[in-house]
């Protein structure tokens, strides 16, 4: 279960979001030592421990994608993305241009962002989807591990919406911005 360290609903007028710069200074100071958090919309979000099927889907996707993009792109597993001045989420997977391997992905550099969700579905389909679209990421998948469906977002708009949202349960997905890559959903959901 994902829990918020700050209230997710109506925030007071005097609310001041935490910036990425402040967030990273706190990380450097060891403030979050032993706690997995991410910054989304200026709020600290605590990430809960992973369990199956979430963990298995991340492992399987990493193996599928890394094999196909080897030498062309990198697959970052739970690495931070600098989405905007007040967001540095850590999606389950992201595909980045190869020179960024091991580094922090900058705004708009990820070619595909993937979140696997069990208890974080509302956050992943809400605030994160808006921020990824506004940042210009060409494609965003939310994989509902419970219902075994991929909610595929493509064609981002600057206002934080997506021109196309599909719900896919079977067949093969080919990412729009990553050539020669396919994900067979029947194989992915075979657990």
**Rg over C-alpha atoms, rounded to the nearest angstrom:** 16 Å
N-to-C order of helices and strands: EHEEHEEEHHEEEEEH
- How many strands in all? 11
Going across the biggest sheet, name each strand in turn: 4-5-6-7-8-9
Domain Putative restriction endonuclease: 21-172
Protein name: Putative restriction endonuclease domain-containing protein
Organism: Euzebya pacifica
What does this protein look like?
The protein has 191 residues and is of the alpha+beta class. The protein has one domain: tt1808, chain A (Alpha-Beta Complex), CATH 3.90.1570.10. Strand 8 and strand 9 (162-168) form a beta hairpin. The strands form three sheets. It has a six-stranded mixed beta sheet with strand order 4-5-6-7-8-9. Strands 1-3-2 form a three-stranded antiparallel beta sheet. The chain has a two-stranded antiparallel sheet with strand order 10-11. Mean pLDDT is 90; it is low at 1-8. The chain has five helices and eleven strands. It starts with a strand and ends with a helix. 23% of the residues lie in helices and 27% in strands.
Task: Set out the fold topology.
Elements: E1 3-4, H1 20-28, E2 37-40, E3 43-46, H2 54-69, E4 73-77, E5 93-97, E6 112-117, H3 121-125, H4 127-135, E7 139-144, E8 149-156, E9 162-168, E10 172-173, E11 183-184, H5 185-188
Parallel strand pairs: 6-7
Antiparallel strand pairs: 1-3, 2-3, 4-5, 5-6, 7-8, 8-9, 10-11
